[in-house]
Design brief:
Blueprint: E1 5-8, E2 14-18, E3 24-31, H1 46-53, H2 63-71, E4 76-81, E5 86-93, H3 97-110, H4 115-133, H5 136-148, H6 162-165, H7 170-180, E6 186-191, H8 196-206, E7 213-214, E8 218-219, E9 243-246, E10 253-261, H9 269-280, H10 287-295, E11 299-308, E12 313-321, H11 326-342, H12 347-364, H13 368-382, H14 388-396, H15 400-410, E13 417-421
Parallel strand pairs: 2-6, 9-13
Antiparallel strand pairs: 1-2, 3-5, 3-6, 4-5, 7-8, 10-12, 10-13, 11-12
Helix pairs in contact: 1-7, 3-8, 9-15, 10-11, 11-15, 12-14
Length: 422
């Protein structure tokens, strides 16, 4: 079992550290605040907006000083936002590790979001939106979730809309971060050869206590913002069996077929994980790829994917094809779904599928940056360390009956939603 070091401060901030022998350290803040924490109709795109603006100045550093404090040492500083998280992280040599801790803590807890920087950066974000809109193969994923989760914070895209973004101010950014960038909603993760006691000592000296006021971020006590924190929005029942068509005037059609699926902690999730890999995983031997591409030559890309959130999830198939092949491709996808619903995997097929997935996961762990992000996120949402051995055991425990049962729960025709860009 992998040996992690963990610690929790009185203010609720959790730390997780995995030692390694590399000269490079990966570290950062995983924050349980993303698109779904935005107030519907009022704050769309604000989580991602705050992520951009967090690099634009604190009381101690301006934007250029923030960048140079890490990159001037040969390190890398980055961030991203998704539906449930915002992550700020760095890669740096271990000799300068505490510098990264200091800079990350400064920007997360003490950003000032100056208005003059907002007016510049918002145009950068608007350009990002335009770039995204020019890529239908990416845009369709967001639009599909917008349909699956219509009327819910999960059902609007991360980037937001340009007109709304241009109206955001310093006060909007401070309001969102005061409500969400709170120690009890964070994990500080570290993957590297560092002294854990030095880390905890440094963080204790520079993080908000939870009782005192932190400059520019207000009172961090649990009760200070209790009236400001919105209650979770309940999910609206799903309406499956629908087909949506958007005319985008592209040379190629883009299609997604899918449904809501399972949350993080659902015991059926591992069976779906294996089923998804069998149908449309990255291997060229995935069933959908063998059918649509290798046998029929109808597509260049076909893949299936799954995502899990705290209370729900989604599963989908994506492919791009010529406009006149849409119906045939949809028929072939349906045929593969029916096949796995009606006929369970043989013992040898199940063994091969498990071996392939476990091998892919083991290779993925060689990406040290992604591995660090993954175990930080696991600790944030599940409260325990990411253990590859236990994950392998859970895969081994999946039966052919488990997979067939999940397929029948999710893949019924009247349960699936289809989105076509043509």
């Amino acid at each position: 079992m992998t040996k992690y070091n963990t610690y929790t401060f009185e203010n609720g901030l959790r730390i997780i550290h995995l030692p390694s022998v590399s000269q490079v350290v990966y570290c950062g803040y995983e924050i349980a605040a993303g698109t779904r924490d935005e107030r519907l109709g009022e704050e769309e795109g604000l989580a991602h907006f705050c992520e951009h603006m967090t690099f634009k100045g604190t009381e101690r550093r301006n934007a250029l000083q923030i960048i140079n404090a890490i990159e001037g040492l040969g390190g890398e500083l980055n961030a991203f936002t998704n539906k449930e998280d915002t992550v700020y992280y760095a890669a740096i040599t271990k000799d300068h590790f505490l510098q990264a801790v200091d800079v990350l803590t400064d920007i997360v807890f003490h950003s000032q979001y100056p208005q003059h920087e907002i007016e510049k950066e918002v145009e950068v974000i608007c350009d990002e939106i335009e770039s995204y809109n020019d890529s239908p193969a990416e845009l369709i994923y967001d639009e599909f979730e917008n349909i699956l989760f219509a009327g819910h914070p999960l059902g609007h895209n991360i980037l937001g809309k340009a007109d709304q973004l241009r109206g955001y101010t310093t006060e909007d950014a401070l309001r969102f971060t005061q409500r969400n960038y709170r120690p009890e909603k964070m994990v500080f993760f570290v993957y590297g050869d560092i002294d854990f006691s030095r880390l905890t000592k440094r963080l204790k000296s520079i993080c908000p206590s939870g009782k005192d006021e932190a400059k520019n971020q207000g009172d961090w006590s649990m009760t200070a913002h209790s009236e400001q924190i919105p209650q979770p929005v309940p999910l609206i029942p799903q309406s499956g069996g629908q087909i949506f068509t958007h005319s985008i005037g592209s040379h190629q059609a883009h299609v997604m077929i899918g449904t809501r699926a399972y949350c993080y902690n659902d015991p059926r999730r591992m069976a779906l994980y294996l089923l998804n890999n069998i149908l449309g995983g990255p291997g060229m031997n995935a069933r959908l790829n063998l059918s649509l591409r290798e046998r029929h030559g109808l597509v260049y890309t076909v893949e299936s994917s799954m995502v899990s959130y705290g209370d729900t999830g989604a599963w989908s198939v994506y492919f791009g094809c010529d406009h006149h092949d849409i119906r045939k491709c949809c028929h072939l996808v349906r045929k593969e779904l029916d096949r796995i619903m009606k006929k369970p995997l043989s013992n040898s097929q199940l063994t091969i599928a498990k071996r392939q997935l476990k091998g892919q996961l083991a290779i993925a762990c060689d990406n040290r940056e992604q591995f660090a992000l993954d175990f930080g996120r696991s600790y944030l949402h599940h409260g325990h360390e990411r253990d590859l051995d236990k994950l392998m055991q859970r895969i081994d425990a999946v039966t052919a009956e488990d997979i067939q049962k999940v397929a029948n729960e999710l893949f019924a025709t009247d349960n699936l939603t289809t989105l076509i860009f043509e």
